[in-house]
Amino acid sequence: MNEETIIMTLISEGGGARAKSLQAIRAARAGDFAKSEMLMREAKYALKKAHNYQTKLIQTEIANQSIPISLLLIHAQDHLMNALTVNELSKEIIENLKERRD
């Protein structure tokens, strides 16, 4: 897989994970915790996939194969980091919503 495809996958999977995490919060706010958990599993899968591709880029760099730094690569990294942050916050928000329902 070439670097451009990897970068686009990071953007796609990161954006998808972020969206699923936010949908999970909305489902939890509506009291649908089963749907919320399903969406969080889907987000986790997307994050894992993105992380695996990010690891490929890192391994390429470790092997002394230069990776051109581009605005697209930076954008992809931003997407992934944003998705990871939103996902972690989503977990906390959903847990708070569950506790309030008990």
UniProtKB/TrEMBL annotation:
<keyword id="KW-0808">Transferase</keyword>
<feature type="modified residue" description="Phosphohistidine; by HPr">
    <location>
        <position position="75"/>
    </location>
</feature>
<keyword id="KW-0598">Phosphotransferase system</keyword>
<keyword id="KW-0813">Transport</keyword>
<dbReference type="InterPro" id="IPR003188">
    <property type="entry name" value="PTS_IIA_lac/cel"/>
</dbReference>
<dbReference type="Pfam" id="PF02255">
    <property type="entry name" value="PTS_IIA"/>
</dbReference>
<protein>
    <recommendedName>
        <fullName>PTS cellobiose transporter subunit IIA</fullName>
    </recommendedName>
</protein>
<keyword id="KW-0762">Sugar transport</keyword>
<dbReference type="InterPro" id="IPR036542">
    <property type="entry name" value="PTS_IIA_lac/cel_sf"/>
</dbReference>
